[in-house]
Structure formats: C-alpha cells, structure tokens
Design brief:
Elements (H helix, E strand, L loop, with lengths): L4 H21 L3 E7 L6 H10 L6 E2 L2 E9 L4 H13 L5 E4 L3 H14 L3 E3 L17 E3 L4 H14 L4 E7 L2 H16 L3 E8 L7 H10 L3 E5 L6 H9 L5 E4 L6 H7 L7 E4 L15 H15 L6 H21 L7 H12 L4 E2 L4 E2 L15 E6 L2 E6 L1
Parallel strand pairs: 1-3, 1-4, 4-5, 5-6, 7-8, 7-9, 9-10
Antiparallel strand pairs: 2-3, 11-14, 12-13, 14-15
Helix pairs in contact: 2-11, 3-4, 5-6, 8-9, 11-12
C-alpha cells in the first residue's frame, strides 16, 4: 500500500501530539501563596507558611506544586507577588494574603487574570458585596460581624453599658469599627470613644489617655498579631480597670508571650481550633480542628499551633475538595480549569475544617456559620474555653 506524503504528515503530527496530550492530562496543580512571613504580621504569616508543609502532595491523582512568596506585610509587595505567581508561575489558584489590606489590594489582579483566590484575612470586605471582581475571591476566616456580635453579647452579659474602641488605622480596624457599631446597636451598648493606631507604632499613650478619660465600662481593641498587645499594655499602665476585649486577630501564642500578665482576663471570639482539646465531645468542629492541631504540633512541636495556620489549612482543604471536581471539566494549567475551580469552590458543601464547617454559595464566599466561633479568655497565660 502506498503511503502519501499527507498521511505521513498526519501520522507525524499525531505522534507529536500524543506526548503533549499525556503531559496535559498529568499537569501538576500549581498553588501560589503569598504570606506575611516577615514584618508586623509575621506572627500570623509564619504559621501559615509552615502549614504548607502539611498540605497534600497530590490531589485528584495529580501532583500539587506549591510556590510560596513572602510579602513582608507590605501591600505593594503582595500585589507584586500576585502578579509574579500568575504571570511567571502560571498558578491555578492563589492562597493569600495574611492581612486585610494586602488581600484587598490583590483583588483587581486576580479578577483581571481570572485566577481564583482564597484569602486568609478576616474582613468581610474581601468577599462582600459580591460583584464581577469578588466572584473570584473566597476567604477562610470568620466574618467580622459574626465575631463582633459575639463581643457585644459578651459585653452585655457582663453588665457593660458603655464601650470604647481602638483599632488599626487601616482596613482591618475600619472594618471592625463598622461591624462593632452594628453589633453594639443590637445589644444597646453606648459607644463613647473611637481611637486608631498603626501596626508599626511604638507608643499609643495619646490614644489611651483619651480612652481612659472617656471612662468606658469596657474597651475593644481591634488589631491583629503582636501589635495588638500595645494598647492593652498601655491601658494597664495607665490604670484602666475596666474589661478589655480583643478580636480573633490575636488568637496565637505570640500575643500571649508579648502581652504577658497585662492580657490576663482578656475576652475574645476565636475559631474553635484555638481550644480544640477543650471543646465538648459533641462539638461539630472538635474532630476536624484536632486533626490540624495534631498534624501541626507533630511537625513543629507541642504548643506551636496557631489559629492563623488554621486559616491556611482550611484554604488547602477547600482546594482539595474543589480541584477534583474541576478536573472533571478541564486540566490544571488552563484557563478552563481556573474557571471550573472557581465554580467548584462556590459549590463546596459541609466541609469540616479547623475553624468550622464550610458551605460556600454564589452569595457567600466565606461559608462559615456560628459553628465557626467560640468565646475564650486568657487565664494563667493560656487560652481557656468559655462558651460555644
């Protein structure tokens, strides 16, 4: 049988295409991550970075490639990292960043490139209101309003009638002020003072003097990581005797170390994993929270676990649940896969994580309900469970 030149070319093309097709079908899932491993938010970002070592090496039968960059708690660097992860590394999904300002700054970049992003920062502004840009963005921490209501309820239950507020002079502090105003209104608390400070400040004496002179029954400090200890230490130095509350942004052992005796008795809402081994046996998150706690401490040592690493763990769980569904429609490394992954993330239902049970939807890209928070206090230099 005579073989024509056309048949030879077709056969050659088919032979060349076969390895390419096989490669595409086995392309690794590439996960990009930008975290604040240095700078003011390092106590949050370091456990997030460490948690990558605990994430699965394969998902849906395909290898996973993790690329982790440090944004040094800087908004501009977070945006630069995001562009690098998308442009140079061709990531399928981005996890990050650690802080609210960084995460907000990243939204335009991921939306333009149509790459799903899972933030580890708390502010609801990262995913609300849903629009053409934020439909590409998800987050794992609890929404501020959920935690603000818990604080306001604890204040009301403790007989507090008037409250002061001091928060970061950035999107985190502003977001908390907005939500706490709503929660305070619900619980009929009188807000009589509102002060701000920067994450890098070394003194907040002026702000604290104004707070003390207003004489509130209780004060909420809306900061995160170790910088949030500064206003509380200063309040104690100035003789403030009222009740002090913090947000879930301080829920790690570095805050306890820096705050020392000055943070004893602090009350705050937190993710269940902070006190996982103290949760009632029938608590819906106890098992999944302990899974992360035990894995992290086995790797990094007893007492090393942090709720912030838990946010990274939950982001990894979301990718692990959604990616196999997306792989049914397209292969990693393609635009079609990134669209399918976004859609699959939106369809996650009843996923147990370190911080709660996730139920995403087109209207809710945070996915946590009241199972995702508990009330804790600081007692004898450690965290103590108060109530679910």
């Amino acid at each position: 049988m005579r073989i024509t030149r056309r048949q030879t070319l077709i056969a050659t093309a088919a032979g060349l295409a076969a390895p390419s097709l096989a490669w595409a079908q086995n392309a690794p899932l590439t996960v990009g991550m930008t975290v604040s491993a240095t700078g003011p938010a390092a106590s949050l970002g370091i456990p997030e970075k460490n948690t990558v070592e605990l994430m699965p090496k394969t998902i849906g039968g395909q290898a996973v490639n993790y690329i982790v960059l440090d944004d040094a708690s800087d908004t501009t660097t977070a945006v630069t990292n995001t562009r690098k992860l998308i442009g140079e590394h061709k990531v399928d999904v981005i996890i990050g960043s650690t802080t609210t300002p960084n995460s907000l700054a990243m939204i335009d970049v991921v939306a333009e490139a149509q790459v799903p992003m899972i933030s580890m920062a708390a502010s609801a502004r990262i995913v609300e209101p849903q629009d053409a840009k934020k439909r590409w963005v998800f987050k794992t921490p609890q929404n501020d309003i959920m935690m603000a209501v818990a604080v306001a309820q604890a204040m009301a239950d403790g007989g507090i009638k008037s409250a002061g507020f001091i928060g970061f002079a950035d999107a985190y502090g502003e977001g908390w002020w907005q939500e706490f105003q709503k929660a305070a209104g619900i619980k009929r608390l009188n807000l009589i003072a509102n002060e701000r400070f920067n994450r890098t400040d070394t003194s907040v004496t002026g702000q604290v003097l104004k707070l003390v002179s207003a004489r509130p029954d209780g004060i909420l400090i809306a900061g995160s990581g170790t910088p949030a200890a500064l206003p509380q230490k200063t309040l104690k130095e100035r003789g403030y005797a009222g009740k002090i509350f913090q947000t879930h942004g301080v829920a790690n052992n570095d805050f306890l170390r820096v705050g020392g005796k000055d943070v004893e008795g602090t009350i705050l809402p937190a993710g269940p994993m902070l006190v996982a081994n103290q949760l009632p046996a029938d608590h819906p998150v106890r098992k999944s929270a302990l899974e992360y706690v035990n894995a992290y401490e086995a790797k990094f040592g007893k007492g090393s676990v942090s709720t912030f690493g838990g946010h990274a763990w939950d982001a990894g769980l979301l990718v692990g649940r959604a990616a196999p569904e997306a792989m049914k429609k397209a292969q990693p490394g393609t635009a079609a896969f990134r669209v399918a992954l976004r859609d699959a993330l939106e369809g996650v239902r009843e996923l147990p994580g370190a911080h709660g049970i996730f139920n995403m939807s087109p209207a809710d890209h945070a996915g946590l309900d009241q199972r995702g928070r508990v009330l804790v206090t600081v007692a004898n230099g450690t965290w103590k469970f108060l109530s679910a």
